[in-house]
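Progress against Task 2.4 (sequence-to-structure conversion) is shown through the following example record, which the project officer requested during the mid-term review.
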Amino acid sequence: EGWALFDVTGSGARVYRAAGESYLSLDCSADTCIAGLWQRLDDLSAGDYLFEADVFLQPGGSGGSVSARLGYDATGGVDPTAPEVIWSSRAQATGWQRISWAEKWSQELMA
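Structure tokens generated for the chain above:
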């Protein structure tokens, strides 16, 4: 596992695994919610990496919009608002979709 929740807007976000399911769910109780999951990957060396996540997006009961994106901080930080975080483009369609992108990490980037 190793996943941790971040809730930038303090909107009561929660993460859970439903009984019998292999995926994690993230719910927010507020209309405006900026939240997600993060995980630290220790001891990565320079090289080519592929970041992927399968996400299911569904607007809440009050409608509105929902989106997801992947981000990474090669400096090892854990603040999703830090300028060092590089984000993918947003997935915004309702339903299941895969977010992915490839990245080449150099020794300089990881220093």
